Amino acid sequence: ERLSRELRHALPRSVRVDSNATGSCIELVPIISSCSYVQLPKPGGSSANPFVAVTPIAEPGKVMVGSYLYVYASNTAMVYNSNSSRRKVIDTITSHSSNSELSEFSFLGNPKHFPKSSPARRFFITEQPVSWCVTPAGELRRFSNYGFNNNQPSLNQLISLAGPGEVMAKQLNNNLADASQGPFIAVASTLQRSSLVLLDLRFGRANDTEPLRIQHEVFVPNVP
Length: 224
What we know:
This protein is mostly beta strands. The chain is built from three helices and 14 strands. It has helices at 2-8, 76-80, 155-162; strands at residues 16-20, 23-28, 31-39, 51-54, 68-70, 87-95, 102-107, 122-126, 130-134, 140-144, 166-169, 184-187, 195-203, 212-220. β1 (16-20) and β2 (23-28) form a beta hairpin. The mean pLDDT is 92.
């Protein structure tokens, strides 16, 4: 249920899967808040304009300053690449001088403008990526606070970057060497439906002939 909830609240186009015999991982970028903007700095004469938006409300316990703001990240490279122009680090959030329902955002680093606007005028505020992995030892582990990587980190890389992670479940016996028993499958979105993630978690001891099999489908919003 927690994994399904995190997938449903993931940044559109951020879900990606890496499956191999040394561990199968699914990665996503969790959303803190999202809302609509009314002014977007873009290349050219408007590049120095402030980013002005309807004041977003963050999830309880989440801090937006220092988090990441995305506008129209339409593929995984725009989400994860270290030099992505669609992602900015929030420096300050201040009330708009003439409208109490609006806020102005400033960003760290340069450039401070965005290359393209969102057709729906949407923006998303996120945390760092999160990964869930099934290990060869039969554990389901959750990793966080390891930063953005152009290529999806493997299980061993995640352990090197973030430590051992949190154990969320034990006694899984998915055969990771068999692609048909992969615990995670991400199906790309189409014009007719959102992205789809298939979960296939098989629990049981190594000598069990009939493991407990949990199959679940999670629809992930795909409109950036």
